[in-house]
Amino acid sequence: MTGTTVLNLQTHLLLPVKDPPGSQELSFRLKEQESLSLLKRCKNLEEFKQVHSHILKLGVSCDSFVAGNLVATCVLSAWGSMDYACSIFEQIEEPGSFVCNTMIKGHVKALNWDQALLVYCEMLERGVRHDNFTYPIVLKACAWLVAIEEGKQIHGHVFKLGLENDVFVQNSLISMFGKCGKVQLSRSVFEQLMDQKSVASWSAIISAHASLGLWSECLKLYGDMRREGLRAEESTLVSVLSACTHLGALNLGRCCHGFLLRNISELNVIVETSLIDMYVKCGCVEKGLSLFQKMTKKNRLSYTVVICGLAIHGHGREALELYSEMFREGLKPDDAVHLSVLSACNHAGLVEEGLQCFKRMKYEHEIQPKIQHYGCLVDLMGRAGRLEEAMQLINSMPIRPNDVIWRSLLSASRVHKNPGIEEIAAEKLFQLNMHNPSDYVVLSNLYAQAQRWDNVARIRTEMASKGLTQTPGSSLVEVRREVHKFVSQDMSHPQCKRIYEMIHQMEWQLRFEGYSADTTQVLLDVDEEEKRERLKYHSQKLAIAFALIHTSQGSPIRIVRNLRMCSDCHTYTKFISIIYQRQITVRDRNRFHHFEDGICSCGDYW
Predict the structure, then answer these.
(1) 143 near 179, Cβ under 8 Å?
(2) Chain segment 249-285, per-residue pLDDT in tens
(3) Phi–psi pair at 17, nearest 5 degrees
(4) Cα 353 to Cα 412: distance, rounded to the nearest angstrom
(5) What is the pLDDT of residues 517-527, one digit of tens each?
(6) Which of 345, 352, 298, 294 is nearest to 326 (CA)?
(7) Within the chain, what is the greatest distance between any pair of CA atoms?
(8) Contact (Cβ atoms closer than 8 angstroms) between residue 132 and residue 166
């Protein structure tokens, strides 16, 4: 069989076919069937080219049905070639909807999104009729290109063609608008579906909100979907799990996990990794590790998620062990893995191990460090008090230091009381002129610590004139599968009176334990009593009070903060864990803090 081609297998078909008397139509159909039979047997591009040549000789290549199958075979086969498909497409004088749709689909599959839109424009120019198979793939191209204007025009075409009630087209519009950041347009299309909303419709709208980080809305929509009696797909639950991860909604995440176990026999790697990410970022690192160890097929992303999870929990040694395990499993770590390992070393104070990892990445694996890697290394050395070395590293960087690096150095120099480096870092930070509100706050705080209140007022006035506002600190706490949000001095919660009464009760008990508010954290020109009052109602304390009211004695409390925890809240929470005998887990912007019996897992290093 050496040298056999797909044509050799049908030599009897290649003999001249005699048309039955008076039946040219039958002869054409036989040639058509022969062409389709040969196309189905193609196993590679070389065989396909031979068949294409033979079809040209048969004289049926102009037939729309044969031409469509020619293009479809070349485009959609695993061995296909878009370049060769384009050469065939260009020879078709009057391509129909099927051929054009196939070409658009092929370009999207090959990630040639702009080419997909060009084929669609060609359809418009030639007057080729669009149908409900055209729009989902064209809108997918718009989504990947974030081509919102083109997407809006195509939305208009959908109306003109009378496809505004087609569920498949509408779902594609919801997804496209969401990925282009226009969630209100997604909602508008979604609401127009009325009673026609399918599982795919709900999945598209939930995904649209997830892509913009609207996590609370994701969970609300998921609840609405469940009340409609619809069962979510795996892709929907990945978005819901992401929402649970960001909001720290562990109980709802557990419900999603249970649903998956009951309804899906074998979870894919993406879902398993999403579950691991949810557990480790909701404070259950042991559960996340357990799921990871049970995975039958682990990939680089799985390792990255677990190493990152161990990092934010301060388990540096365990993260390094998994890093070594990757090599034993034959997986080559990429820049994301190395960033997670550096972060793990940073949170655990493993300076030498972090430096070794950085050198290994750069010289052994030949991965060029990015600004994030340098930033992590500067933070690692700064936290450890090695400020001069951190400064030397910054000066030797091949990349221009960004605001994050100077901010890390500034923070470290303040902690280790090095005014010289602190002044340099502050000056470099403001030379970048990033218009970041937090930078103005940092400078304001520097003046406040020196009690230079006129300068503080000047900086605050400058912020206001430029329209810069700092993101207020907030804390989220999940109680009875509902996430509650608090900000400092919050009076907006419906149970505000009960929460403030609980705060007073907690304060009374804290005095007996020896707690004293750290008023140095309040950088305002007010008296000590006012400073204590401001500290009393920090968002984290309000969230703890609410959880103590609404959870049973001895049950754990989990809180998610959007900013770094202040030292007063840290001390306060250690005392509360003793007084109320609670395990309190707080995830701030940088890492996890597990409080139990007056001790924090960070070892006061954060």
Answers:
(1) yes
(2) 999 999 999 999 998 888 889 999 999 999 999 999 9
(3) -90, 120
(4) 20
(5) 887 766 565 66
(6) 298
(7) 110
(8) yes
- Strand bridging mode 474-479 / 557-561: antiparallel
Q: Which residues contact 151 (CB under 8 A, 6 or more apart)?
A: 139, 142, 143, 173, 176, 177, 180
Residues with Cβ within 8 Å of 282's Cβ and at least 6 positions away in sequence, in order, are 244, 245, 248, 249, 250, 253, 558, 587
Q: Does the pLDDT value for residue 12 go beyond 50?
A: no
Residue 584 bridge partners (DSSP): 557, 595
Burial 73-89 (b: 16+ CB within 10 A, else e): bbbebeebbbebbbebb
Amino acid at 384: A
Question: 360-404 pLDDT, tens per residue?
Answer: 999 999 999 999 999 999 999 999 999 999 999 999 999 999 989
pLDDT of residue 6: 52
Residue type, 145: L
Buried b (16+ CB within 10 A) or exposed e, 170-205: bbbbbbbbbbbebbebbbebbeebeeebebbbbbbb
pTM above 0.70, yes or no: yes
Identify the pLDDT of residue 558.
Answer: 94
Count of H helices and E strands in the chain? Answer: 30, 6
pLDDT band per the 50, 70, 90 thresholds, residue 234: confident
Residues 456 and 58: their CA atoms lie apart, in Å, by 86
Give the E-state strand segments of 366-517 in sequence order.
474-479, 482-487
Cβ–Cβ < 8 Å for 471, 563: yes
Please choose, from the candidates 162, 170, 166, 247, the residue with its C-alpha nearest in 3D space to the C-alpha of residue 202.
170
Q: How far, in Å, CA of 458 to CA of 586, rounded?
A: 35
Contact 193, 201 (CB under 8 A): yes
Nearest to 103 by CA among 72, 61, 81, 129: 72
Helices 113-126 and 134-145 cross at an angle (nearest 10°) of: 140
| pLDDT single digits (tens) 557-582 | 999 999 889 889 999 999 999 999 99
Is the model's pLDDT at 302 over the cut of 70? yes
Cβ neighbors of 481 (< 8 A, separation 6 or more) are: 249, 251, 252, 255
Confirm if 110 and 96 have CB atoms less than 8 A apart: no
For residues 383 and 591, give the distance between their C-alpha atoms in angstroms, rounded to a whole number: 14
Distance in angstroms between the alpha carbons of the first and the last residue of the chain = 70
**CB count in 10 Å sphere of residue 44:** 12
CB-count exposure of residue 229 (10 Å: 0-12, 13-18, 19+): exposed
70 neighbors 88 (Cβ within 8 angstroms): yes
**Structure-token match 């509902």, residue found:** 482
Q: Give CA separation, 75 vs 82, 102, 371, in Å.
A: 6, 7, 40
For the chain, the 3-state helix, strand and coil shares in percent, each to the nearest 5, are 65, 5, 30
